[in-house]
Each structure stands twice: as structure tokens, then as C-alpha cells.
Amino acid sequence: MNFAQVVQYAFSGITVGSIYAIVAVGFNIIYNTTGIINFAQGEFLIIGAMTAISVSRIAPLPVAILVAVVVTTALGGLIEFVFIRPVKKASVLRLIIITIGLSILIREAMLHIWDEQVRSLPYFTGTAVSSLTILGAHISPQVLWVLGASAVIVAALTLFFRYTLMGRAMRACADDSMAARLCGVNDRWMVTLSFMLSAGIGALAGCVISPVTQTQYDMGAPLAIKGFTVAIVGGLGNSMGAVAAGLFLGLLEALVVSQFAAAYKDVVAIIVLLLILVFRPSGLFTRGDVSALRTA
Amino acid sequence: MKTRFAAILSILIVALVLIAPGCKESDDTSEGGASAVDKPPIKVGAIFAITGPASFLGAPEAKTVEMFVEKLNEAGGVNGRKIEVLIKDSGARPENAISMAKQLIDEEKVLAILGPSTSGETMAIKNICQEGSTILLSCAAAESIVDPVASYVFKTPQKDSDAARRIFQTMKDMGVSKIGVVTSNDGFGMAGAGQLAKYAPEYGATIAISETYDKAETDLTGVLTKLKGEDVQGVVNWSIVPAQSLVAKNMKQIGLDVPLFQSHGFGNIKYVEAGGEAANGTIFPCGRLLVADVLPEGHPQKDVLVQYKSGYESRYNEDASTFGGHAYDAMVILVEGIKKAGSVETAKVRDAIETLQGVVGTGGVFSFSAQDHNGLDQNAFEMLTVKDGKFAVYQK
User: Fold this and answer.
1) Domains (ranges, CATH) in chain B?
2) Residue B374 CB burial class (10 angstroms; 0-12, 13-18, ≥19)
3) Close Cβ partners of B81 (under 8 Å, ≥ 6 residues apart)
4) What is the mean pLDDT of residues A70-78?
5) What is the rounded radius of gyration, in angstroms, for the C-alpha atoms of chain A?
6) For residue A2, what is the nearest residue in chain B, using CA coordinates?
């Protein structure tokens, strides 16, 4: 294997990894506020991408994406208001099962709205055939968009959760909603807000990856599974960890493809997930004691 | 009160079931005089994957059958009787197909079942139809549906092996001998990989590397980098999933500039649209439906194709696909069989279908025999390519 080929495999890993990472980030927002995993996160991506594709026929691309993000954000809030908020004795398990039901519901609804055809947004820069040549290997410019979008989202989220009152209030709710309420935080609205935020970010992610992955009504679940794996590997709730874990998993898969049959790729991903759940359940990039504090 | 009502109802049902066969007989005897309106319609079942992962197959198939039957009945039906079609949505699940087939055979007593859309479902009900002596006209691709032959089971799509042979023949003409193969990890992809491996030596081609990817894959640059490392002269992708346009894009993106061949699963203009510029130059074998408009006048299939295509497109306002064409062919073969048999007795219709010769359909010209329940050969395929985002006949 020559050097250019090694770089090419690395680029392939980064391409896949950046997609995993941007999906994984969405999981962390709702987890950070409610402690639940939203299994409809993959569907938020597809709704966002599909909406943008429909709107892009009559409006320029940036407008289409903006509309998609706004629509999906509103939908995220609506879904929380209708399906999550009224639940009595809302245990974490019960809420998670509701999100699984929601994902099926949304998927079927999308089948009726957008049929079964594969669509995709146009490439943000260049076309399907353009590529950048770096160190003798090639990479699609869209991958840089995905990486850039992940970086911006993660930076913005980190600032939001650490330094704004609202962000801190949301984290306080996850830690102890009763205590947060006693301090004057409206915990109900914080949950709604977290659904809106994660739906909006999911929509943005869906739009950015659409040119690379293409978009079909039932693609949310497979994307969400990989994103979920990455979120766990990186440590749930840790957005920077999610990006690092996404790239790690993508590169690992590229390594497997280069050395063994490509069919074994997912086996490796699942084994990594199992090993981490057994030996480092708090994730690769989160310290155990921090995680213990969170769940205490 | 409730139980008495139920008892009366069940007695009524039993009575109806007992009387029903009697009615049928009396109808058959008065064949000559009565008009189509008086006679009970011929019941035909259909199992299509209208929703779910194979909806791109099942949805156009169901629409095609609806359109076909409506037109046929308006024109007076077949042998003076109308056709009543019962369309079931299996969601591409074999277990659904099984219970639907049993229901259609045992309760509805249909003459024939059209579909299912996928090979897995068809294989699941092949024996049920055979044992239930009900004609099955499958719209799925796998060769195992008609090999070994089950006397009541037929299929309309062209054979995988013929697609593989046409691909290799084209490669030979182009001087491509060292190739890489990528296939999806579903039934269609696995079958294709097998056929390609089987026929490569016959055409002097070497498969340098053969890789499988997950059908829900979102990026294939890794696998294609591996192919590039082997210095292949051509790539064959065999899948029915959206990965078909991904392969085209990813090849261009990593600078793998060799001809891309795809299976007959590429016959959907949406895949070309999804692939954008990258799809240009893709070469694949396909039925002639997609190039109906540019076929020379006088081609035996020209009229059938143009008629079906324009009928479908004006009615449903979407592009016709070869998949819908498979259902069209199934209907044509059934109707021709009934006409030839001059009866609606299952065994007689079955015998008649087996002797049909030169029936023009969308997938090719069908000629059946006791050994061949597909009725198509290599000529059913045309090698197509993509030029400026449109399908065109491939020319050397």
C-alpha cells in the first residue's frame, strides 16, 4: 500500500466519521436535559433534509436549509408538547420507548408525504464529481462542510451549555429536576426547548450530509444506530467526545476495510461498542467520576 | 342474544360457502348467452410490497395492475368476463406474503396470484402456491424462482444470468478484462455476485476483487479505494438500493476513472438524478422500457412499450419504471393464458401459459415451455448508458 492510498483510506474514514459525529451530537442535547435517549433523532435528520430538498426547488439553498431547520425545530417542540409532556410518571425507560414509537410514526408519515424515492440536496460547493486533491488522495468538498458544521455546532453547544443561563438551567434539570425547579427553573419548558434544539440541529445535520449520503424516508434508523454508538463511545452528553469518537470509529472502519473484507466493518463497530460498555461505560472521553456524578 | 346472532351468521356463512360452488357451475354452463355483467368476475390476487423498503418495486406494480385491470374491464374483460383483482400490501415481509397467499388461495380461491415484488417473498410462497394449485406470476428477479421449475410458478423479470452475460460481453468488446465487483448484502446483491463469478471465465474476465457492503451504506469510498489499489479496468456494482448512485459519485470523488457497470437494478431515473453528473457514462443491461421513445419503428416491443409508458405516466404523473412493467407482463401473460385456454379452470390456464409463444411484453418477448417458466433470453436486455442525465442505448 503506498502513501497516497493510506491517505485515501484516512479520508474515507474521516468522511464516514464526520457523518457519525454530526448525528451523535444531536443525541447529547436531549440527554443533557432529560437523561433520555431520543430514538427519533435519526428521523429529525431526514425530516430536515427532505424539507430542505422540497423547498430548494423554489428557493435558494441557504433559504431552504433555514426553512428546514425552523420547521423541524417547531416540529420537535410540538412532538414534545403532544407526546412527552402529558406522560404521567415519566420514567426514563417509558420516555425512551415513546421515542421509539415516535420514530416509527414519523417514518411512516414521511413515506406518505415524500414517497419512497431517494433524493439529495445539491453539493454546497462543486458537484457530485468534484474533489479536492490533498497529498495525492481525493476528498469531496462536502466532507469539509460536514466537518465544519460539526465543529461550529459543537463549539456553539459547549458555549451555550457552559456560559448561558438557559444552558445551565437545562443541565440543572438533567441533574436534579426537583432542585432545579426549587431554584426557579421551569423544568417543563427546558425539556421542550431541548427537543426543539436537538430537532433543529438534527435538521441542519441532515441537510449537510444529504449530498453525501442521499436521503430516503427510512434512512434515519441506520444513521441513528451509528450515531448512538458514537455518542456512547464518546461518553453520553459529551459533544466534543462525540466528534472525537465519530472520527475514531470512521477511521477504525476504514482500517478494517483496507485489511479485511468490507463486510466485517460493522462487526468491528459493534465489538468496540460492547468492549466500551463493559470496560468503560462512561465513554472513552469522559472521566468515570464525572459520569457518576451526573447519574447520582 | 349475541350468541344467537353469531350462530345465525355462521349458519348463513356455511350455507353461502356450500351454495357458492354450485353457482359457479351453473354460470359455466350458460357461457354463451349471458353478457359480461351477469357473470361473476374472475378473481385474481396480487401481493406487492407497496410500502416498506421495496416500495420502489411494489408501488408501481400495484398502480400498473390497477390501471391494466380497469382498462381491460372497460373493454369488456377477457372471454366475456371481468377481472376482479385483490391487491395486498406485504411491506416486503415474507411472513406477510405467506399469510396473504394462504388467504388468497384458501378463502378467496383466486385463479392466480401476481407478485410478490421481492425474491425472498416469492421463495417463501413458491411451495404454498404449488401445493394449492394456484398460478403464481412473480415479479421478482431471482432465478431460483423458476429453477427448479415448479409447474404453477412463473416469473416475468429477466434472468440475472443473462444480465451478467450481457455485461461481460460488453466488457469484452471494450477490452476490459480485469474487474472489481461490489455488491450489496441482500438477496439481489448476493445472487448477482454469484452469477458474475460464474460467467466471468466464459468471457475471459478476471475478478480481481469482490466486496460486499451493507445495503444501508452511506459512503463507499473505503471499499472503492481498495478496488483502486488493485488497478482494476472496470467496476461492476450489483444492488437495487440507493447505493447505486453512491458508487458512481464515490468513484469520481476518489479519482477511480474506469467504466462503471451496474445491474438491471439501475433502471430508475431517480438513481441517475441522485447520482447527478457522476452517473453519466454508467453502463447497464435493462429492459427496453426506459428507451421506448428512441426505439426504432417496427421493433416488436415498440407499440407495447410506448402504450404502457404513456398510459402510466399520464395517469399517475410519475415516470414509468421497468418494475411496473414486470406487473404489466404478468397481467398480459395471465390474460393471454385465459384466452388460449378458453376457460378459467386453473389447470387449463396453467397448461395454456406454458405453451404461450411470442407474447410481447415490456420486459421482452415471452416464449414459455415446460422447462422455461421465464420465457425470456439474453435479447430481452438492451445495454443502456447514461448521457447527460438521461438513459440512452449504449453504442460501441
Assistant:
1) 41-158+311-380 (3.40.50.2300), 161-286 (3.40.50.2300)
2) buried
3) B36, B39, B40, B41, B42, B344
4) 95
5) 19
6) B229
Nearest-neighbour CA in chain A from B38: distance (Å): 39
CA–CA distance, A106 with A112 (Å, rounded to integer):
10
Helix (H) or strand (E) segment spanning residue B262: strand B260-262
Considering only alpha carbons, which residue of chain A is nearest residue B54?
A116
Task: Kindly report the three-state secondary structure assignment for every residue of B285-343.
Answer: EECHHHHHHHCCCCCCCHHHHHHHHHHHHHHHCCCCCHHHHHHHHHHHHHHHHHHHHCC
Q: What angle do CA A257, A263, A264 make, to 5 degrees?
A: 70
pTM for the whole structure: 0.78
Set out the domains of chain A in order of their start, with CATH numbers. 3-295 (1.10.3470)
State ipTM.
0.81
Q: How far apart are CA B331 and CA B64, in angstroms?
A: 9
Helical spans, DSSP H, in chain B: 2-29, 55-74, 94-102, 119-131, 160-174, 187-199, 221-229, 243-253, 269-275, 302-316, 322-341, 346-354
Q: Which one, of A143, A151, A128, A117, lies nearest residue A46 by Cα?
A: A117
Q: Which residues of B touch A16 (CB under 8 A)?
A: 218-219, 222
Cβ of B254 within 8 Å of Cβ of A137? The answer is yes
Cell of A284: 472513552
Report the residue of chain A nearest B58, measured CA to CA.
Answer: A116
Q: Which residues in chain B have their CB less than 8 angstroms from residue A219's CB? A: 216, 218
Tell me, what's the pLDDT at B37? 53
Residue labelled with grid coordinates 401459459: B353
Query: Which pLDDT does position B30 carry in this prediction?
Result: 41
Q: What is the pLDDT of residues B65-95, one digit of tens each?
A: 999 999 999 999 898 899 999 999 998 899 9
Q: Which of B185, B286, B174 is nearest to B235 (CA)?
A: B174
Reported confidence tier of residue B359, pLDDT bands at 50, 70, 90: very high
pLDDT digits (tens, 9 = 90+) for A5-21: 889 999 889 988 988 99
